[in-house]
Write a structure and sequence with these properties.
The complex is a heterodimer. Chain A is about 0% helix and about 55% strand. Chain A has no helices and eleven strands. Chain A has strands at about 5, 10-15, 20-25, 30-35, 45-50, 55-60, 60-65, 70-75, 85-90, 100, 105-110. In chain A, strands 2, 4, 5, 9, 10 and 11 form a six-stranded mixed β-sheet that branches. In chain A, strand 9 and strand 10 (about 100) form a beta hairpin. The model of chain A has no long low-confidence stretch (mean pLDDT about 95). In chain B, about 0% of the residues lie in helices and about 55% in strands. In chain B, the strands form two sheets. In chain B, strands 2, 4, 5, 6, 9, 10 and 11 form a seven-stranded mixed β-sheet that branches. In chain B, a hairpin with a 2-residue loop joins strand 9 (about 90-100) and strand 10. Classes of the chains: A mainly beta, B mainly beta.
């Protein structure tokens, strides 16, 4: 059974600071996704990581994937209040069924 | 592109009634759609995989007779919650795999179900 662990689950940070969210998973997979969820809303796709060493950046967010370590990181640079949301990583179980297993999510609060 | 819609966006019903939720891919064909449920302050849990023209595959612990899934066309999957009870109150989210872009799921906006 694929397990996905995110940490931290709660993150309170000041504007302008940097921080990293970690996503570990238990079985071999080279398809990992990061999503953002605002309160009462559905998921917004942030990054799709499909190979070992993949690195993608969008604005103040950068995601990377190390399939050998079964680890992905979501790095936040110079946080701003608008980044406050819950962030989920999800791992594809592999093969052709494309089922996703989600981490528990990280609730990020950026304080002025 | 790759827009997924859900209808209704919210519904309130009485205990014992059935509720149907629609998930549509608006600008692409989706041979596979997924249904998730999310309780407050929790993560998404996969309920079932819906394949066009075949029976849905349910995850362990999900009652297939309670959560009826029909994927009648390449752009529409429906989830019917039968004989709903208050414990079925949740946020239901569907996603769709785009043919030719099979590595990415596109998520609908969700349906909030409240059973009184």
């Amino acid at each position: 059974e694929l397990k996905v662990e995110q940490n931290p689950l709660f993150l309170s940070m000041q504007e302008g600071k940097n921080y990293t969210i970690y996503c570990n998973y238990s079985t071999t997979s080279d398809r990992l996704y990061w999503y953002r969820q605002d309160p009462g809303k559905s998921l917004e796709s942030l990054f799709v990581l499909l190979s070992n060493g993949a690195v993608k950046q969008e604005g103040r967010l950068m995601a990377s994937l190390d399939t050998k370590a079964r680890l992905s990181t979501l790095h936040i640079t110079a946080a701003v209040h608008d980044l406050s949301a819950t962030y989920f990583c999800a791992v594809d179980s592999g093969g052709s069924n494309y089922k996703l297993t989600f981490g528990k999510g990280t609730l990020l609060t950026v304080n002025p | 592109g790759a827009v997924v819609s859900q209808h209704p966006s919210w519904v309130i019903c009485k205990s014992g009634t059935s509720v149907k939720i629609e998930c549509r891919s608006l600008d692409f064909q989706a041979t596979t759609m997924f249904w998730y449920r999310q309780f407050p302050k929790q993560s998404l849990m996969l309920m079932a995989t819906s394949n066009e023209g075949s029976k849905a595959t349910y995850e362990q612990g999900v009652e297939k007779d309670k959560f009826l899934i029909n994927h009648a066309s390449l752009t529409l999957s429906t989830l019917t919650v039968t004989s709903a009870h208050p414990e079925d109150s949740s946020f239901y989210i569907c996603s769709a795999l785009a043919s030719g872009r099979a590595h990415e799921q596109f998520f609908g906006p969700g349906t909030r179900l409240t059973v009184l």
